Amino acid sequence: MAGETATAAGRDFIRDIIDADLASGRTRQVVTRFPPEPNGYLHIGHAKAIALNFGIAQEYGGRCHLRFDDTNPAKEEQEYIDAIKRDVRWLGYDWGPHLYHASDYFEQLYEWAEHLIRAGKAYVDDLSPAEMRAMRGTLTEPGRNSPYRERSVEENLDLFRRMRAGEFPNGARVLRAKIDIASGNLNLRDPVLYRILHTAHPRTGDKWCIYPSYDFAHGQSDAIEGVTHSLCTLEFEDHRPLYDWLIDNLPVPSRPRQYEFARLNINYTVLSKRFLTELVRGNHVSGWDDPRMPTLAGLRRRGVPPAAIRDFARRVGAARANSLVDVAMFEHAVREHLNKSAMRRMAVLRPLKLTITNYPSGQIEELDAVNNPEDPAAGARRIKFGSELYIEQEDFSEDPPPKFFRLAPGREVRLRFAYLVTCRDVVKNGAGEVSELICTYDPASRGGNAPDGRKVRATLHWVAAADSLPAEIRLYNPLFTRPDPGAGGDFFADLNPHSLETLTGRVEPALAMAAIGDAVQFERQGYFCLDPDSRPDRLVFNRTVGLRVSWAKARGAG
Ligand code: ATP
Ligand code: MG
Q1: 421 and which of 215, 439, 443, 536 could share a cystine (Cβ 3.0–4.6 Å)?
Q2: Predicted confidence band at 417 (pLDDT cuts at 50, 70, 90)?
Q3: Tell me: the pLDDT tens digits for 239-296?
Q4: Residue 205 carries which DSSP code?
């Protein structure tokens, strides 16, 4: 399908608007921005917004700014700023010299707040937060004016300057826009523009003890930077009249416009920084980069290529209607990319010993194994074969059910790239479990072909006991047991207790050469990558995704 390539960028209502703006001359150069609040790590929902903003800038020969919306020092940290930059770059986007912070504009924003006061369009309010809430009214009830609403310009200026100077404690006063307390839009009922917060800021330190609200900072920052199309998610639709009111009432240098698109929602997945923060803080996962997390850091560690995320975002597209995307669609994009690039290797996740009695004990021979059937240029490697091997426990059945074509007593199967083997006997341990298979091989079947053309249905992967390496294998299942986590009222109750399964497997020695993050396909098992927890004597692999939709199995417990 054509959705693969960079040229096949989807059409959407935003690109239609931009086309019209360019045609009418209203826009000369397209300028967008991605405005994260540094209060958590980016997740795949943000990737949609990043791909949209940076993608549009690329397509239209414009530019996209990275702007930290750092107006709430109580929740924001430098760690998040660093992580966000790393993740945007990893996704494949470059803001060039256009790195900004809302805090860069604090002085200008302050001046504009005074401008509103002088124009009689803002006032200092002494109501407590609770009183203000009570008087704000509801969707069905108009609000009531604050008794402080008619303060004189002089008094407002004096109080606002003293707020800035640090004379009042947190919460004592706010600056509000004077718009319309009876408006049908709650955002226009004299919204708060500045609040007092005696908290140091990661960038401005102790310089400020009043901070602008999101609404007061955002549109004005857009205007300062010359952003033409300010794209945000639908929850800001009701803020747009305020966005426009502020732009219309301030001497800003440009006229940005806000457009809203639907958030990305994915089933079995939670995309909320607040909740993801709780998962990390509560140690429900190993950190922001736990491979089960929908964060970009988690997806990277899991082995997801950034190009797969970009393709996924492109296919999801930008629309105004909210929708729920099936996580299978994401996995499909991941598989598609890895299928082309990942080297094939053999690894046994749950080893079962297999001994070939008619193969000279101690003899080792080398066989050729293709690296990637999708990519002839990837070549071949040599693998060692001997009398002692491991196969997958689940590839043997002592009492095979119908349609089980793999190994069973008396049955012959093909060992990939090697020989045909027949199971002659089984050895059991004290618990009565099969611990070893006693087999013979057909010396005339080198390469896996039956000399007489007899039919052998199954081909199994394997590793040699002599040179395979033990490895920790981490299998990831969905973090949640229900498609709509939290819908029952408690996110934590929906956590999947089997989201991580850890196995000790054996892998072929070529994998010792893998670099952290390298994608490989374990034949018949899925795509894996080397985890940063690996050490020279202990390889750790993460399963990025299975080979096919193994959802029916993976969605349920264990
Ligand atoms: P969260 O709800 O996870 O806390 P947020 O919207 O508060 O996210 P911001 O840092 O404010 O996080 O978001 C930066 C940008 O990313 C905003 O423009 C926001 O609209 C967009 N964004 C956030 N979540 C999604 C999502 N699920 N799908 C698409 N865009 C998103
Ligand atoms: Mg936000």
Answers
A1: 439
A2: very high
A3: 999 999 999 999 999 999 999 999 999 999 999 999 999 999 999 999 999 999 999 9
A4: B
Ligand found nearest the CA of 262: 1
Find out whether 212 and 235 touch, Cβ atoms under 8 Å.
no
What lies within 8 Å, CB to CB, of 270 at 6+ separation is 276, 294, 479, 480, 485, 486, 491
Q: Looking at residue 291, what DSSP letter applies?
A: T
Render pLDDT for 331-349 as a digit per residue (tens, 0 to 9). Answer: 999 999 999 989 999 999 9
How far apart are alpha carbons 22 and 27 in whole angstroms?
A: 5
Arithmetic mean of pLDDT over the chain = 94
Which amino acid would we find at residue 209?
C
Spell out the alpha helix ranges (H) of 44-105. 44-59, 78-91
Report residue 240 as tokens.
């747009």
Q: What is the spatial distance between Cα 255 and Cα 330, in angstroms, rounded to a whole number?
A: 37
Ligand 1 atom 4, closest CA: 273
Whole-number Å distance, alpha carbon 164 to ligand 2 midpoint, is: 25
Task: Establish whether residue 36 lines the binding site of ligand 1, counting it when its CB lies within 6 angstroms of any ligand atom.
Answer: yes
Pocket test for ligand 1, best of 46, 50, 263 (most atoms within 8 A of CB): 46
CATH of domain 343-468+508-555: 2.40.240.10
Mean pLDDT of 513-533: 93
State if pTM tops 0.85: yes
* CATH classification (class only), 13-261: alpha beta
Ligand 1 contacts CB of residue 204 (under 6 A): no
Q: Kindly identify the ligand whose nearest atom is closest to the C-alpha of 81.
A: 1
C-alpha closest to that of 346 among 516, 57, 541: 541
Q: Which two tokens stand for residue 361?
A: 């004990």
Atom index in ligand 1 nearest the CA of residue 235 equals 20
Whether ligand 1 lies within 6 angstroms of the CB of 273 is answered as yes
From ligand 1's centre to the CA of 197, what distance in Å?
A: 24
**Span from the CA of 144 to the centroid of ligand 1 (angstroms):** 32
Please say if the pLDDT value at position 322 is more than 60.
Answer: yes
Quick check: CB of 475 below 6 Å from ligand 1? no
Partner residues linked to 232 by β-bridges? 260
Domain boundaries, the chain: 13-261, 343-468+508-555
Could you list the active site residues? Answer: 37, 263, 273
- The residue behind tokens 């101690």 is 362
| Ligand 1, atom 10: closest residue by C-alpha | 36
61: left (phi over 0), alpha (psi -120 to 50) or beta: left
Which DSSP string do the residues of 4-52 spell out, in sequence order? GSGGGPPP-HHHHHHHHHHHHTS-SS-EEEE---SSS--BHHHHHHHHH
Report every protein residue that has its C-beta within 5 angstroms of ion ligand 2. Answer: 37
Tokens of 436: 């070893």
The token duo for 82 is 């660093």
For residue 37, give the ligand nearest its CA: 1
Task: Decide whether any atom of ligand 1 lies within 6 Å of the 467 Cβ.
Answer: no
| Distant-in-sequence contacts of 446-453, Cβ < 8 A, 24+ apart | 446/367, 446/418, 446/419, 447/367, 447/417, 447/418, 448/414, 448/415, 448/416, 448/417, 448/418, 448/419, 448/420, 450/420
